[in-house]
Amino acid sequence: MSTIRITGIRTIDLRFPTSRFHIGSDAVNKDPDYSAAYCILETDSNFEGHGLTFTLGRGTDLCVQAVEYLSRFVVGRTLESIQLDMASFCRDLIGDTQFRWLGPEKGVVHLAAAALINAVWDLWAKVEGKPVWLLLADMTPEQIVSLIDFRYIDDALSPAEALEILKRNEPTKADRVAKLRANGLQAYTTSAGWFGFSDEKIKRLCQEGLRDGWTHFKLKVGGDAADDLRRGKLVRAEIGWENKLMVDANQKWGVLEAIERTTALKELDPWWMEEPTSPDDILGHARIRKESGVRIATGEHCHSKVMFKQLLQAGSIDVCQIDSCRVAGVNENLAIILMAAKFGVPVCPHAGGVGLCEYVQHLSAFDYLWASATLENRVVEYVDHLHEHFLTPVRIERGRYMLPEAAGYSIEIKPESLAEFAFPNGQAWLEEAKAAETRA
Amino acid sequence: MSTIRITGIRTIDLRFPTSRFHIGSDAVNKDPDYSAAYCILETDSNFEGHGLTFTLGRGTDLCVQAVEYLSRFVVGRTLESIQLDMASFCRDLIGDTQFRWLGPEKGVVHLAAAALINAVWDLWAKVEGKPVWLLLADMTPEQIVSLIDFRYIDDALSPAEALEILKRNEPTKADRVAKLRANGLQAYTTSAGWFGFSDEKIKRLCQEGLRDGWTHFKLKVGGDAADDLRRGKLVRAEIGWENKLMVDANQKWGVLEAIERTTALKELDPWWMEEPTSPDDILGHARIRKESGVRIATGEHCHSKVMFKQLLQAGSIDVCQIDSCRVAGVNENLAIILMAAKFGVPVCPHAGGVGLCEYVQHLSAFDYLWASATLENRVVEYVDHLHEHFLTPVRIERGRYMLPEAAGYSIEIKPESLAEFAFPNGQAWLEEAKAAETRA
């Protein structure tokens, strides 16, 4: 326990002008400027806690403002007082009696809660001198259970059931820690298959990916049906049938259309179909899964543990795509990972954007060490951009995440990047504005 | 069609210090300051369109900011260009490629969309010289279908099915318009049963309610189990067993606890149990309904038509409690009302707060005229406060909403109230600040 006190917060509206290069383009998100509401918890020591919530550009200011509001539940507290009952801390943060009307537990206010809760984890891990995944690895089962707010999920996973899972995995954990350190986590690449990329670029990126040791490739679909199939065949021609191909429609279709379109893509032998319809449509996903016979993945827009609970209960998904900052940070994700383990559904985190890869490696490690105790059918998304801005960027070797040993949550961005990409007055944005003026 | 052009927008962060009087207090929302992100669409004519989204105080500024951002989809357009394809207009508003990440279709950004879309309806109705309910009543079935974005719901309700419902009801509609004008809509009162009220106050308000002709009373529950039952018996002693009593837990419980607590309240013969658990728990509500055998109501926190679709598909609810501004305004509500009609579930709108009663009378009229064509088991919530701030407040007679004939959506607030309760610089808030200073 630490007597360090959190004394203040700094926030930054951080935006990268990625839309200029069609990076991150898909059937729905056509022009993302990968962005973040970034926060720094200041303390009465030399330690700082960094956290961010990922956004797509416009509206990041709303998340920043919500982070500033919610910081009243953080600033002034000792780290120890949070550590002693972190479930209650999280519940206070998401339960503000007036603010919760704006959610509850969804959208802007929940994204903001994620930034703050993750920043507390970054601080905690730095104070302990461990990466977050190891901090979690070294806890007792009881400590881990105490991190979780079981409200609204105890019909699917009770504290006793969670404890049982954790205790069952404890004796073999040290062995998995050693394996994890030696071999890392299997990754897959989304960098080759963005919507806005030309055929030539896709082919080249597939070839480069194979050379670099990648075995799992994701392609964005949801355009014209014939063109989706054509682009899929293009990728298959490059990567062969022994490698895995996943397709991602980014919520483009209604349920009936999704069944039709997913079925039409079966000849590509997709390992999964991702986000075929509205992220809120639990029953729709279950129907698409049943009627298409294709493995279904979703989660990056799934806004809370209550929604994940139902995706699992309804048999909607074969792949549980947790997101590190759409739900309320580490704690809510631990609940989701343990539920997925109980239902036997593999966790394959959503990543990319800015900072999501850095975050999720810690969560997948928790899944392997404490929850599922297996790496089978588990892959972590990887997208190769913006890592250069991080103090301790992810380390990828032959298509695998090699786990960090540096203390913290790996999310700290270099001060010069924070300055350059601050919106709207950082140098990068001043130059964007000038360029726009010249074009006009 | 109207060539009037929308030329600008004014927004107001409007907050009423209702928490001082325990008005609106329940098991979860303990201290609401009824508030609104309020907007005024200015035009190149004498007409203005007023709209608001309801909030509970803190965070209203986020909604105001989101309204200002989304106004780019409204300002500069002619009313005609919106009227010609309103479904596309709504879809643009909720589909901004960067902003939608903050939802999608939920929370702050969706609340903001509601304010704007409702303001367009207010403008449209004022230009036509009709109240919104009559504007809708005078449309053709085809026009009404064109107002609805069927994306993500066509597996439950196709445009053809919607058209069929509307056409089936068209021949008898004039008769219902006459009945509606003569008799209004059955209301129920929540004013008697707030959480923070003393026994004496509850008793007095029940007696007053009976005198004023009320037959349906709602009580807030979700406190100590024995106390809930005691307060319920208190109300029953006043209103007898021939009047209806509804209970409302405001999301207090998990699924298992909700089953237990709902069952324990059966001896009160509740007409419905409202919000027994998380508003996102579709499968949880279905289970509570099945295992308790009590009629289940929810919807005021249900954030989109996709969620309502599933509540209907899963057999989760006996009562569909639409909210006029949590989903994206009139248009999304028409979709929900038509789905409810198809599934045979009565629509009993959530109201209260500020402006919600003024709004929902129009939507219930649409339900009766075009969708369900019946008033059976349909009641509209009524709470008796803040109506004095409206230019054309709701008119309640012997427990019934008497429909407005004034043009517009009944939501326009008096200029002097807008000035007095603007946060933080209106006179009411300057006085609050001074009073707080004196107390300190």
TrEMBL record, chains A, B:
Residue span, Mandelate racemase/muconate lactonizing enzyme C-terminal domain: 199-295
InterPro entries with a match to the protein in the record: Enolase-like_C_sf (IPR036849), Enolase-like_N (IPR029017), Enolase_C-like (IPR029065), L-fuconate_dehydratase (IPR034610), Mandel_Rmase/mucon_lact_enz_CS (IPR018110), Mandelate_racemase_C (IPR013342), Mandelate_racemase_N_dom (IPR013341), RHMD-like (IPR046945)
Cofactor: Mg(2+)
Example GO BP: amino acid catabolic process
SUPFAM superfamilies named among the record's database cross-references: Enolase C-terminal domain-like, Enolase N-terminal domain-like
Pfam family, one: MR_MLE_N
Keywords attached to this entry: Lyase, Magnesium, Metal-binding
Enzyme class: lyase
EC number per UniProt: 4.2.1.68
Name this polypeptide is given: L-fuconate dehydratase
Provenance organism: Silvibacterium dinghuense
